[in-house]
Amino acid sequence: MRDRAGPAAEAVTVRRPEAADFDAVVVGAGPAGSAAALELARAGHSVALVERGPFPGSKNVYGGVVYGRILDELIPDWYERMPVQRWITRRQTMLLSGDRSLTVDFRSQNWGRAPYNGATTYRAEFDSWLAGHARAAGAVLVPSTVATALLRTADGQVVGVRTDRPDGDLTARVVIACDGVNSFLGKQAGLHPDEQAAHTTLGVKETLALPRETIEERFGVTGTDGVDIEILGGTSGVPGGGFLYTNRDTVSVGLVLGLPGLAKAGLRPEEILAELKQHPSVRPLVRGAEVVEYSAHLIPEGGYRSMPRLGGNGLLLAGDSAAMCLAAGIWLEGVNFALGSGMYAGRAAANGLRSGGPAVLGEYRRLLEKSFVLADHKKLRDAPGLVLSERVQHRYPGLVCDLAEGMFTVDNPRPKPGLRRLLRRAARHNGVRMRELARDALTGLRSFG
Amino acid sequence: MTQRYGDIAFEDRMSQVDFRVAGNAHIVVDTDVCRSCTTKACVHACPAKLFVPTDDGGILFNYEQCFECGTCYLVCDGGNAISWSYPDGGQGVVFRHG
User: Fold this and answer.
1) What fold, for A12-85+121-192+308-380?
2) What is the ipTM, given to two decimal places?
3) pLDDT at B4
4) Is the minimum CB–CB distance between A180 and chain B shorter than 8 Å?
5) Is the Cβ pair A259, B45 closer than 8 Å?
6) Subunit contact A296:B69, Cβ cutoff 8 A
7) Contact check, Cβ <8 Å, B95/A204
8) How does DSSP classify residue A360?
9) A247, A274, A394, B57: which one has the fewest Cβ atoms less than 10 Å from its Cβ?
10) What is the DSSP pairing of strand A315-317 with strand A240-246?
11) In this structure, which topology does domain B4-93 adopt according to CATH?
């Protein structure tokens, strides 16, 4: 299947085109690709935005919240125009251990008014909306078209992409691959490290229909306010986590499962999800709701340490293809990193095109390092490993729930136990050594502090 | 036989998803390789349940209801037994609530 976009596809060697069809070809009309195309088109360059789905967003799945602040740089008053399901005004982190749970529940009505913080959306709507802005700025959207291979000169310069359309070669002075977590174009360029499976999780999600009033009652919100719940535990022992968030007339509940753990476990993703939905803290929120869509997508969760080289020789990577998802426990973000990296890739490419040289990788990297995109990833480089570690996954939820249960169980006539004794007992009971706890606390402090 | 997990049959779960099925398969499995595979991780890891073990130790596969996620080729132990690619442009899964 060499004429298709897959792991076996190879770059095609071509002669350097006399005149390129476009200044830039951007592959993938997700948030990274549309941000890149928008930035390039606004700078006056001709851009083709190639999308394999019938419309932008049709192949995309996410896990809960779009944090749109970076859009301030791209679309003024974006929050007045973006297709929003609900604005998140209530954010919870839930630890599950057996049928127990401990939840941190934060609410701020500040997040329910301009300039807002994060929103839930449907990617079919959000991605199409953003691609619409790129088109309005002059980018040419080419949907239902797969970029199957890089076009490269004999000396390795990327000069375009081959597509699955008849006579479908598109030549360009720069190519930005926003072709997602599988990034077959990035792999053709040899930019990705091996062992992708070790840093990849599988996300599965059910979108469940519920009447709007029921959602408001169950989640304690009104109007366009919404809730996002991140869950640790509840994955039947497979390293990963869960999520649950509200849309207008649906709630979405899902899991993120580490591929190596899933491969070993012999469990099916939807079985694990069914188990999570039975948890006493989750069930009341989703019971009686009908599945209107089931979806699945891979997520690059390895963070900074698993990132590929970000380009070279006329090619840049942005978004999931550059492993830009941030999976750092209390922070789970991806769309904003795709938007940011795409925007900076577009900006660096535009500057390179203007000055006549294709050497844009250095500037792209500088822009990323100066901004949240690589600053956050660098600072939190040890967080994905910590979050998916055996202790955080299997021992700490139990330890925390033991601690809470010990504190709040009134065991009269015994006097209340001291916190230190409770902690030592909970640690012992969950097989955690105090030395390990101290070490993980230090790693956590270094990352989050 | 219809298997039930929680409150929805797998077939019903998949019938809610919009697939534009292409005329040609984007997944091909070298089932000879599968016969010597001891893990067959694709069988349970694939979220769309496209891979089914056969009595002779091989793998029967479907491509029609594929989420195009890539789990199968990443968990495959059998030296590229699964040849996987994206379907042709415009074909395959169309998520509405992704």
Assistant:
1) FAD/NAD(P)-binding domain (3.50.50)
2) 0.95
3) 45
4) no
5) yes
6) yes
7) no
8) -
9) B57
10) unpaired
11) Alpha-Beta Plaits (3.30.70)
B94/chain A closest Cα distance in angstroms: 5
Ranges of each domain in chain B: 4-93
Closest CA to A66 of A77, A79, A56, A48: A79
**Structural domain spans, chain A:** 12-85+121-192+308-380, 198-300, 389-448
Q: Identify whether the C-beta of residue A148 lies closer than 8 Å to the C-beta of residue A46.
A: no
- A292: number of Cβ within 10 Å: 16
CA nearest to B90 within chain A: A144
Q: What is the pLDDT of residues A396-438, one digit of tens each?
A: 999 999 999 999 999 999 999 999 999 999 999 999 999 999 9
Question: Over chain B (98 residues), what is each successive 10-residue block's mean pLDDT?
Answer: 61 96 93 92 97 94 97 88 95 98
The nearest alpha carbon in chain A to B95 belongs to: A58
CB-based contact, B23 to chain A, within 8 Å: no
CB contact under 8 A, A1 and B94: no
Closest partner CB to A296 (pick from B6, B10, B67): B67
pLDDT digits (tens, 9 = 90+) for A149-185: 999 999 999 999 999 999 999 999 999 999 999 999 9
Give Cα separations from A221 to A79, A103, A133, A229, A275 (angstroms): 19, 17, 31, 14, 26
**Region for A148 from its dihedrals, namely left if φ exceeds 0, alpha if ψ lies in -120 to 50, beta otherwise:** alpha
Q: Backbone phi, then psi, for A407, in 5-degree steps?
A: -70, -35
Nearest CB neighbour to A196, from listed B49, B67, B74:
B74
Fold equal for A12-85+121-192+308-380 and A198-300: no
Cβ of residue B74 closer than 8 Å to a chain A Cβ: yes
Contacts of B98 in chain A (CB under 8 A): 57-62, 122-124, 205, 293, 295, 297
The predicted-structure confidence for B77-87, as pLDDT tens digits, reads as follows: 877 899 999 99
Flag if B47 and A278 touch (Cβ within 8 Å). no
